Amino acid sequence: MSAGQKSSAGTRLARRRPRQSATLTRVEEFLREIRPDAPEAAAQYVRELMVSAIRLLEDGTPIADVRLLNAAVRELRYAFRIFAPYRGVRKVTTFGSARTAETDATYRQAEEFARQIADEGFMIITGAGGGIMRACQAGAGRARSFGVNIRLPFEQNPNEFIADDPKLMTFRYFFTRKLLFMKEANAVALFPGGFGTLDETYECLTLVQTGKAGPMPIVFIDAPGGSYWNAWRQYVRNYLLHNSLISEEDLSLYCITDDAGKAVEEIRRFYRIYHSSRYVGTQLVIRLTQAPPAEVLARIEHDFADLAVNGGFEVVPRALAEEDADETAELPRLVFQFNRVNFGRLRQLIDFLNENVR
């Protein structure tokens, strides 16, 4: 860029700043007027959201793009409101074919899994359609079900177990719907299905493998004696692992079973000692239901040293600067500076805690 071009760009930027500042000032005044009691942390992001929306006009954004963004934000806001009363309840998102018949062994397996996991206190999230979605909501029951429906010209009318329920949401866009599936999930259960199920399979694996979703159990459930997921596992080993497209540790991110009870136990066991986690600055804070004793911590220091950078592992009663909900305030923490790369190894650490803390 020439000196003249730089000067011209600087002039344009200088001219925009007063307008942006004026816009932000008016937005702040408007928010203070209509919601003077709004928490400042939330108000800050709402201000930014409003300013971004106004800048769509300044940018001359095409109406189709504005309409898309408006619909997406409206869908998400509505869904957040529906899920809000159930924030303290763990949920399992389930995926599988809409075409699976009631007479199919996979359908019966999905219904049995949903019944058992609901008995453990979990709620079920499905796509609200037929097949596996209907089976899971039949098993869990209406009271313990959410439906995250999608508008399609075929296959996707809400099943009778969730139709007209306040916990049924209908989305226009797959990307907003998929965001809710993972955002609200504490576990994922996948049954055999078509392109959509495989898309959701790789989506949830990618999000957990890259840390874009928090650690959670991912369970692939087949019909008794079924081979769908075992064939998929062989493909993953032969073509992905063998060609170094994934790491051996990534295989720890999921389990495969043809037993509904074992699938339920996999999810239940994941939360035996592990409660939840979050980042505070550069540190990963793992909330636990029980603190690991000194000998277990020593084994973690030795066996999982590759996960920690710039220091080791520390057990603390509460992490500094962490804003906790009441139900987690008193939980002990395992704190360390995680490398944010080896999420399969992080899952192995969680399994180690669940197996060795008594």
Describe this protein's structure.
The protein has 358 residues and is an alpha/beta fold. The protein has helices at residues 3-34, 40-58, 63-83, 105-119, 132-140, 174-183, 195-209, 228-241, 260-270, 294-303, 343-356; strands spanning 91-95, 123-126, 145-150, 168-171, 187-190, 218-221, 255-257, 274-280, 283-288, 314-316, 333-336. Strands 4-3-2-1-5-6-7 form a seven-stranded parallel β-sheet, with helices on both faces. Strands 8-9-11-10 form a four-stranded antiparallel β-sheet. The termini are far apart. The relative contact order is 0.08. Mean pLDDT is 91; it is low at 1-16.
In short:
The protein is of the alpha/beta class and 358 residues long.
Low-confidence stretches: 1-16
Contiguous helical run count: 11
Rg over CA atoms: 24 Å
- Average pLDDT number: 91
Helix content: 40-55%
Structural class: alpha/beta
> What gap, in angstroms, lies between the N and C termini?
65 Å
Tell the overall outline.
globular
- Annotation, overall tally of beta strands: 11
Q: Which strand order does the major sheet show?
A: 4-3-2-1-5-6-7
Instruction: Report strand %.
Output: 5-15%
SSE pattern, N- to C-terminal: HHHEHEHEEHEHEHEHEEHEEH
The biggest beta sheet is recorded as: 7 strands, parallel
Question: How are the elements arranged and paired?
Answer:
Blueprint lengths: L2 H32 L5 H19 L4 H21 L7 E5 L9 H15 L3 E4 L5 H9 L4 E6 L17 E4 L2 H10 L3 E4 L4 H15 L8 E4 L6 H14 L13 E3 L2 H11 L3 E7 L2 E6 L5 H10 L10 E3 L16 E4 L6 H14 L2
Parallel strand pairs: 1-2, 1-5, 2-3, 3-4, 5-6, 6-7
Antiparallel strand pairs: 8-9, 9-11, 10-11
Helix pairs in contact: 1-2, 4-5, 4-9
